[in-house]
Amino acid sequence: MQAPKAKKIAQLLETHGHQRTDNYYWMRDRENPEVIAYLNAENEYLKTSLKSTEEFQEKLFQEMKGRIKEDDESVPYLKSGYYWYVKYETGGEYPLYCRKKGSLDAAEEIFLDVNLLADGKSYYQVGGTAATSDLKTLAFAADEVGRRIYEIHFKDLETGEILADHIPAITGNFAWATDNQTLFYSKQDPDTLRSYQIYSHRLGTSTANDLLIYEEKDEEFSCVVHKTKSEKYILVHSESTISSEMRFLDASNPTGEFTLLQARLPHLEYAADHYQDHFWIRTNLEAQNFKLVKAPISTPQLENWEDVIPHRDTVLLEDFDIFSNFLVVQERANGLCKINIKPWDGTAGHSLEFDDETYTAWISTNPEFDTSILRFGYNSLVTPASTFDYHMVTKEKTLLKQQEIVGGYDASDYTSARIWSKAADGLMVPISLVYKIDKFSPDGSNPLLLYSYGSYGFSMDAYFSSSRLSLLDRGFVFAIAHIRGGEDLGRIWYEDGKMLKKRNTFTDYITCAEHLIGEKYTSPEHLYAMGGSAGGLLMGAVMNLRPDLFNGLIAAVPFVDVVTTMLDESIPLTTGEFQEWGNPKDKEYYEYMLSYSPYDNVEAKDYPNLLITSGLHDSQVQYWEPTKWVAKLRELKTDSKLLFLHTNMDAGHGGASGRFNSLKEMALEYTFLFYLEKLI
Question: Rounded to 5 degrees, what are φ and ψ at 273?
Answer without folding.
Answer: -130, 175
